[in-house]
Description:
mainly alpha; single chain; 0% strand; 112 residues; rod-shaped
Amino acid sequence: MTTRRKIRAGILDGEPVLKNLVERQLYFILFLFALVIIYISLHYAVGQTLVEGRRLERELKSLRAEYTTCTTELLFLSKREEVSRRLHLFGSKVHAPTAPPKRIVMEDYSYE
Length: 112
């Protein structure tokens, strides 16, 4: 093929137009590529945030159940009958008072 035929074939083929078009649109193509990368990374970050939120909700539900259990157990153990029963069980000599509490009155307030 001669040089003239190559030039004609290239022109008819659309090579100069295509080459010029790609060169002009290169920055736009790079911009679109960057947008796609940002979109993918944001999508991944949102997915990770949702997974973490679900994990924290499960943990919070578990901690609420544990809190309710501990509160109920503490209320049961702080009953007067339960305290005296456990003191007797462990062999303590402490017992519930039989007389009402007495008031102490101080008449002299000087601390000399």
